[in-house]
């Protein structure tokens, strides 16, 4: 059956519970990355670790062969915005590494991302990571019944571009999530308040600010997937799975376990942490 455009699918409470299991498995997998990530490791090793962990938990890595994508995770380093191919190049001190991945568990998708900092970086990079992570929560604050998609988009754009002058990527957006990895509506990280589809209870969204230190312009490499910043400056990506509720959004994914592992790993830099930027 061909899905009609703008057909937003609202889940039952039982389905939300299953989606929380899927989202939590992604969080647990990213936690495994946070435990071991260090200079000298390769993103291909991360890809293998994630695939094995997901399969050990009786789920399927959903990115593999999705529209022909050849890996289990997207590993985007420094100026790669998203969709970076895992490879055998050793990571080094000062790299910023975004791992984006998804699973299918009991027929439902989980899909989110986290950006890690390997060792010492400049104050400018620390601020970019902090502000991008904060902007995710600014967007989630607006993910409540009777708001509109544009309210989420505006909150993210205002915090990143408006306050800090960062480049908000236009070509890539968040999305609905459910039995399919990409469902309606699209959730841009820029826009006007009071515009776009109205949010109703138990709609699940993947909200994912992709924020560049410099220009918002990007380009796609010859592999057809890897997207880089046009000026070569760093980009940061965070993503949560979020259920629309009446007064406060329900975050289905769990950054707290990732952050605990990140803090315990002596190779990862958490000095960007700010009360507004950590998990609720």
Q: What percentage of residues falls in helices of 4 or more residues?
A: 25-40%
The total count of strands amounts to: 15
If you consult CATH, what is the topology?
Answer: Creatine Amidinohydrolase
Q: Can you give the mean pLDDT?
A: 95
Give a verbal description of the structure.
- With 280 residues, the protein is α+β, with helices and mostly antiparallel strands.
- The protein has a single domain, classed as Creatinase/methionine aminopeptidase superfamily (Creatine Amidinohydrolase), CATH 3.90.230.
- 30% of the residues lie in helices and 22% in strands.
- The chain has helices at 13-36, 43-56, 123-141, 149-164, 255-264, and strands spanning 60-61, 73-77, 80-82, 96-105, 108-117, 167-168, 174-176, 183-187, 204-207, 210-212, 218-220, 227-229, 235-237, 240-243, 250-251.
- The strands form four sheets. A five-stranded antiparallel β-sheet has the order 8-7-9-14-15. Strands 1, 2, 4 and 5 form a four-stranded antiparallel β-sheet that branches. A three-stranded antiparallel β-sheet has the order 3-12-11, with no helix packed on it.
- A hairpin with a 6-residue loop joins strand 11 and strand 12.
- The longest helix is centred in the N-terminal third of the chain and has 24 residues, at 13-36.
- The radius of gyration is 17 Å and the shape is globular.
- It starts with 12 loop residues before the first helix and ends in a 16-residue tail after the last helix.
């Amino acid at each position: 059956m061909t899905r009609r455009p703008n057909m937003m699918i609202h889940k039952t409470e039982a389905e939300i519970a299953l989606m929380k299991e899927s989202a939590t498995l992604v969080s647990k997998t990213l936690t495994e990355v946070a435990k071991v990530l260090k200079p000298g490791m390769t993103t291909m090793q991360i890809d293998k670790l994630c695939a094995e962990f997901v399969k050990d938990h009786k789920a399927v890595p959903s990115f593999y062969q999705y529209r022909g994508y050849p890996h289990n995770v997207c590993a985007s380093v420094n100026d790669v915005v998203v969709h970076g191919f895992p490879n055998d190049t050793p990571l080094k001190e000062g790299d910023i590494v975004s791992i984006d991945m998804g699973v299918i568990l009991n027929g439902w998708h989980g899909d989110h991302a986290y950006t890690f900092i390997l060792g010492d970086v400049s104050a400018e990079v620390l601020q970019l990571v902090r502000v991008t992570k904060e902007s995710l929560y600014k967007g989630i604050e607006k993910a409540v019944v009777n708001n509109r998609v544009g309210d989420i988009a505006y909150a993210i754009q205002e915090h990143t571009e408006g306050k800090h002058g960062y480049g908000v990527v236009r070509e890539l957006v968040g999305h609905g999530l459910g039995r399919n990895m990409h469902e309606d509506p699209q959730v841009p990280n820029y826009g006007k308040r009071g515009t776009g589809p109205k949010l109703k209870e138990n709609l699940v969204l993947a909200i994912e600010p992709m924020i560049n230190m410099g220009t918002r312009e990007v380009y796609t490499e010859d592999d057809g997937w890897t997207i880089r910043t046009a000026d070569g400056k760093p980009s940061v990506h965070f993503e949560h799975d979020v259920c629309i509720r009446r007064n406060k959004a329900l975050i289905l994914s769990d950054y707290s376990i990732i952050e605990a592992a990140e803090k315990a790993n002596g190779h990862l830099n958490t000095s960007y942490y700010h009360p507004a930027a950590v998990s609720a």
